[in-house]
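Morning!

This is the sequence you dropped in the shared folder:
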Amino acid sequence: MIRIEEALDTSLRGKSNIIPAGMEGSGELAPFYLGSYSHEGTKWVEGRYLTIRPSFGNADDVYCYIISIRWNEEASYLEFAETSREDANFEQTAGCLCPICRGIFIW
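The structure's back. Tokens below.
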């Protein structure tokens, strides 16, 4: 829906994307397209996590690396970042989508 709205340059959902007074530009509310979640409401997910996954190329190999989730004040959203990967060329950083705070999705 959001991509259709962007392509059409119009809102199909009415005025639901209005930022509440006092939250605009404060760095405490994520953009509408990421779920309009608040920093306060997502602090529980911030931290460093150990990722352990099988290799895509060799079933006997296992990859381990760190995923950090933190609030990016400048961009005003939760930010996902991989570090300490053996294959550092594939490290990723992205914003996190939190629709109605039922979970975290990386985009």
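Headline: The chain has one domain: 2-106.

More detail when I'm at my desk.
O.
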